[in-house]
Design goal:
This protein is mostly helical and 188 residues long. Helices cover 62% and strands 5% of the residues. The chain folds into two domains: 93 residues, Orthogonal Bundle (Arc Repressor Mutant, subunit A), CATH 1.10.10; 82 residues, no CATH class. Helix 2 packs across helix 3, helix 2 crosses helix 4 and helix 5 runs parallel beside helix 7.
Length: 188
C-alpha cells in the first residue's frame, strides 16, 4: 500500500498530477512491490485528507505549464508536505512514460491570497454581526477557532510562498485586535 507521504513524494517529483495519474503511479508502484494496488476511491480519500491538511494543494490546468484546454484539476505539494519519494518511482515513471510538470507558483499564490482574503472578510462580517448583540462564549470560541484556522493557513502559505502572500498581515492583526476587544469587553 502506498502511503500519503509517498503520494506527496510522487507529486513532488512530478510537479503536478491529476487524481487519475496519482492512481496510475500508485498502482504501478504497488505492482512493482508485489502489493495489491489501492482503489481509485481510496486514492481520492487520501488526496482529500491531504488537501484538508494542506499537504497538497489543488490547482487548475491554467496554473500548470504545458497543459492546455483541460478542465482537470491537478495536485501539487502543499505547504505542509513532507514528501517521501518511493524507491520504485523512477521505474514507474519510465513504465508510464511520464515527465515532470512545472507549476506557475505566482499564479497559485495569487489565487490562494485572494481566497485567504475572502475568508478574512467573511470572518470580519461574522465579528460585525456578533458585535451587534450579546456575545455568547460559544460564539466567541467559534470566531477564535475560525481566526486560528485562517492564521495557521496564512503562516503555512507565507512560509511556502514567502514573497507571494503579502498584504494580509495587517488584516490578520486587525482581526486579532477585534477579537481581543470582544473578549475583554465581555470579561471572557
Amino acid at each position: 500500500m502506498v502511503s500519503k507521504e509517498e503520494i506527496c513524494g510522487m507529486i513532488d517529483a512530478l510537479g503536478a498530477l491529476t487524481i487519475e495519474e496519482i492512481y496510475s503511479v500508485s498502482k504501478e508502484i504497488s505492482l512493482l512491490r508485489g502489493d495489491v494496488p489501492m482503489t481509485l476511491p481510496s486514492i481520492k480519500d487520501i488526496c482529500a485528507e491531504a488537501e484538508k491538511e494542506h499537504v497538497v494543494v489543488v490547482v487548475s490546468c491554467e496554473e500548470v505549464e504545458g497543459v492546455e484546454g483541460s478542465d482537470l484539476s491537478y495536485y501539487i505539494s502543499g505547504p505542509d508536505a513532507f514528501p517521501e519519494v518511493p524507491f520504485e518511482l523512477s521505474e514507474a515513471i519510465d513504465i508510464l512514460e511520464m515527465a515532470k510538470r512545472e507549476v506557475e507558483l505566482s499564479s497559485v499564490a495569487s489565487r490562494l491570497s485572494r481566497n485567504l482574503h475572502r475568508r478574512i472578510k467573511n470572518l470580519e462580517s461574522s465579528i460585525d454581526s456578533v458585535n451587534r448583540g450579546k456575545v455568547q462564549r460559544e460564539d466567541l470560541e467559534n470566531l477564535e477557532h475560525r481566526y486560528s484556522d485562517i492564521l495557521n493557513q496564512y503562516y503555512d502559505y507565507s512560509f511556502w510562498l514567502p514573497d507571494s502572500i503579502s498584504g494580509l498581515e495587517e488584516e490578520m492583526q486587525k482581526l486579532s485586535s477585534r477579537l481581543e476587544l470582544i473578549r475583554s469587553a465581555q470579561g471572557i
